[in-house]
Amino acid sequence: MSNDNKANLKPRHGQPSTSQPHKRGLLLSFIIFMVWVAGIGLLLSLIACQPNQPVVFIIGMSSL
After folding, report:
1. What was the pLDDT predicted at 5?
2. Which pLDDT value is given to residue 55?
3. How far apart are CA 30 and CA 36, in angstroms?
4. I need a surface site. Which of 30, 42, 46, 57 has the fewest CB within 10 A?
5. What CA–CA distance (Å, rounded) separates 51 from 20?
6. What is the distance between the alpha carbons of residues 34 and 44, in angstroms, rounded to a whole number?
7. End-to-end distance of the chain based on CA atoms, in angstroms?
8. Distance between CA 20 and CA 26 in Å, rounded?
9. What is the pLDDT of residue 13?
């Protein structure tokens, strides 16, 4: 092997250096997922926490 080839050899361990855009995409996907979860939670809480309609029972004194 010549000295020119030895100078160009670089060890490649672990992930490639192009992992930064993947991390941004993963963060964006996580944020979108959390927005969906929060939206569904808000809709369910609006449905579940509806005010009850009070029902008034009038009992006449003659029926006792």
Report:
1. 58
2. 76
3. 10
4. 57
5. 49
6. 15
7. 110
8. 10
9. 65
Which residue numbers in the chain have pLDDT < 70? 1-22, 62-64
**Helix, strand, coil percent content, the chain, rounded in steps of 5:** 65, 0, 35
Distance CA 19, CA 11 (A): 17
The pLDDT of residue 41: 95
**Hey, what are 62's tokens?**
């003659």
Residue type (1 letter), 10: K
CA distances from 53 to 50, 56, 59 (A): 9, 10, 19
- Record the pTM: 0.46
CA atoms within 13 A on the CB side of 20: 2
Q: Quick one: residue 14, left, alpha or beta (phi over 0 = left, psi -120 to 50 = alpha)?
A: left
